[in-house]
Amino acid sequence: MRYSKFVIVLAFILGFSSCSPTNAAKRILPRESFLKIKKYLDVTLCHPQKKDLCVIKRFGASASGVIVDSNGDHAYALTAAHVCTESNAKKMLGNHKFTMQFFVVNIHKRYFPVEIVAIDTKNDLCILYIKGLYNPPIEIGVDEPEPGDRIYNVAAPLGIFDKNMIPIFDGFFDGNSGARAIYSLPAKGGSSGSPIVNHRGELIGMVSAVYTYFPQITISPKFKETTAFIKREVNNDKQKRNVNAIISFFGDLFSKKEK
């Protein structure tokens, strides 16, 4: 009888523990913090001989991002610098005039315009300010990953994304190579800017690029450079906006007195 009870208890423990790794990722994935980025280029194309005969063509592209700070009426998000800059568009379009528009889309498929706050082209990092968006921010990692650590990623490769549907991936941290961190993680166009998180769901990296002939190896800015950039630029922008708000308040106050 005692042997039978022991077998039952052991089977229960093993059965419970075998389910826990499957469910662990579900609890830590930053799905509510994820953002799909929509980028539009409105290009003015004119007739070679008739310069006043022009049409405007719209071209679209997509990327990924993640909320790193939020308040009641705004949020800050991280994405890749090459998503925020116009340099690639200028190379491709040459002398054609164009305007660029940014929008982010949250998990509830609501669209929000954005403002570019800071760009670090060396490490391929960019911070966005999004007014009117309130979704919970991702936790920023404290400990640097070690080679062999399992990692997770939510992204919109090739623009694949829908309401309450974000592709989920996992892989491993391989180590640092030169100025970049390397992960065994599949990625494709549209994954740029997506968060790489550890087993606690904390941000430790960001998809920056992928090897063309082996897209299961992903390149990210290093951990320290990424986390330091986020904290520094978000805090700097908050201070600037607070100062501007104070100046605006007193400016309005004095103008009312003069009237």
Architecture overview:
The protein has 259 residues and is of the alpha+beta class. Helix content is 29%, strand content 38%. It has four helices and 15 strands. The chain has helices at residues 2-28, 81-84, 87-93, 223-258; strands at residues 34-46, 54-70, 74-79, 97-105, 111-113, 115-120, 125-131, 139-140, 150-154, 168-177, 180-184, 195-197, 202-206, 209-210, 217-221. An eight-stranded mixed sheet has the order 8-13-12-9-10-11-15-14. The longest helix is centred in the C-terminal third of the chain and has 36 residues, at 223-258. The relative contact order is 0.15. The model is unreliable at 9-14 and 16-20 (pLDDT under 50).
Write the layout of secondary structure elements.
Blueprint: H1 2-28, E1 34-46, E2 54-70, E3 74-79, H2 81-84, H3 87-93, E4 97-105, E5 111-113, E6 115-120, E7 125-131, E8 139-140, E9 150-154, E10 168-177, E11 180-184, E12 195-197, E13 202-206, E14 209-210, E15 217-221, H4 223-258
Features:
4 helices; eight-stranded mixed β-sheet; seven-stranded antiparallel β-sheet; alpha+beta; 259 residues
Short structural summary:
With 259 residues, the chain is α+β, with helices and mostly antiparallel strands. The protein is built from four helices and 15 strands.
